[in-house]
Amino acid sequence: MTAIPVQSVREQMIALLSARFGLEEESVAPETTFSSMELDSLALVEFSIALQEDFGVPVGEEEFTAENTVDEVAELMAGKLTAQDPVG
Amino acid sequence: MTAAAGRPFRAAVTGFGMVTAAGLGAAETWQTLLAGRPTARRVPELAGMPVDFACKADQFHGDAVLGRRVAWRLDRSTQMAMAATTEALNLAGLDPDQWDGARVGVVLATALGGMTTWEREYGRLREHGPGAVSPLLIPMAAVNMTAGHVAAAHGAKGPNFATATACASSTTALGAARDLLQANLCDVVIAGGTEASITPLVAAAFAKMGALSTRTDDPATASRPFDVARDGFVLAEGASVLVLERPEHARARGARPYAFLSGYGASADAGHATRPDPDGTGAEAALRSALADAGLAPEDVDHVNAHGTSTPLNDAVESQVIHRVLGDRPAVTSIKGVTGHCLGAAGAHEAVATVLSLHHQVVPPTANVEELDPQVQVDVVTDKPRPLLMAAAVSHSFGFGGQNAVVAFTSA
């Protein structure tokens, strides 16, 4: 199984945050929390749907909270992508 | 309050803003109205539909105007209302950082709510299941949410609601706003309407009713109020917002009114759901009530900004009512030849146009009148703007459901 690199997931996530919610890409760092981006609970649910569609893996809205950082969610996503990688 | 009971209450119109297919902002819209330049054309949203044209405000991009950080949470109808509100407050010279928010009300109408959002999310439900439905659907698309979002953006903490009377919704909003001011519950009310309902479902439904023009070979001439060959209305989108104030509040801060909202009347046909009363009894009652409220006699009315939808029935009945109540003196126009029919925003668009007519003393022409319907025995302004000395004007709105609303404006 080939591990999906967290960095590429993080970049795709930040691009998604920018496109969906209008966040400046440069304002989002690996350690930025969602609460500091002023994304409320409904926005996080919206984000979990967007992640699911953008990455093509199931993401439950309970799997992260506003206090998680970008990289924590990037790691979560990288793990899901690695686990479902059919080549691995 | 009627003239008999004392001096009529006049709400000062100190600002307004518009987003229409005819322009971004009231100034640009007004120029298009004066030019009588129709805005209907084929739109991609309706590709493949039996009626595939509309009056779309396609210069308006919510992300560009409001910023994506704000716009992503808002239905297009609310985005347009936010832009029109900012324009109106700027024109009024009101700074929300300075005002007593508890004395500021918001009454913003929509006929159908956030239809593009409803339809998009319903598509996602069908395609991907319930887990794909946005948690923002209800706060984006419910009919009351535009007023709520506008209040939150400007700290307007007074009474806050939407009015819904179909195509009369935003005229009803103006009446309700004036009541809030007259009752001294507010110093300022942000009032008007918005609609962003150019969607396949809405177009299919209105087309199936036979309400829409089917002039698909020449969309620009499809909206032709009072013309003998009119065959239905043209769906439109947009928002218009007026700033209404208690006159002494406007005076105290040195704001100059553009006109006064001096009377309001409303009634119900209490008859067929969509067909207007053939005698126009309900429309007449609303008009007479607005005149009485404003302390105006029929012969005082210089100008009528008509509902004038370009449907065979409305324009025939409405012109009969005008003729019967006001005679052939007032200059009558319908801006829907230019703007199309904006449903829940139509009355507010037409209220702003009426205010601008009184302010500039000119009536914009009704576009696309090639041959006036011989049944229409009123003085319809066609071809070019008509300069006119005006002191009083009325604007009609008649909604499906038999809901009629009329506002009377007097010059400042």
From TrEMBL, chain A:
InterPro entries assigned: ACP-like_sf, PKS_PP-bd, PP-bd_ACP
Transmembrane residues, as ranges? none
Q: What are the residue boundaries of the Carrier domain, all occurrences included?
A: 7-81
Q: What is the lineage of its organism?
A: Bacteria, Bacillati, Actinomycetota, Actinomycetes, Kitasatosporales
* Assigned keywords, A-Z: Phosphopantetheine, Phosphoprotein
Would I find Phosphoprotein among this entry's keywords?
Answer: yes
According to its UniProt entry, this protein's organism is Streptomyces viridiviolaceus
Q: What is this protein called?
A: Acyl carrier protein
UniProtKB/TrEMBL annotation, chain B:
Query: So which residues are the signal peptide here?
Result: none
**Keyword GTP-binding tagged:** no
Question: What InterPro entries does this protein's entry cite?
Answer: Beta-ketoacyl_synthase (IPR000794), Ketoacyl_synth_AS (IPR018201), Ketoacyl_synth_C (IPR014031), Ketoacyl_synth_N (IPR014030), PKS_Beta-ketoAc_synthase_dom (IPR020841), Thiolase-like (IPR016039)
User: For the Ketosynthase family 3 (KS3) domain, which residue ranges apply?
Assistant: 8-411
What PROSITE patterns would the database entry show? KS3_1, KS3_2
Q: Could you list this entry's UniProt keywords, alphabetically sorted.
A: Acyltransferase, Transferase
Show the SMART domains listed in the entry.
PKS_KS
Family membership, please give it: Belongs to the thiolase-like superfamily. Beta-ketoacyl-ACP synthases family.
Q: What is this protein called?
A: Beta-ketoacyl-[acyl-carrier-protein] synthase family protein
* Origin species: Streptomyces viridiviolaceus
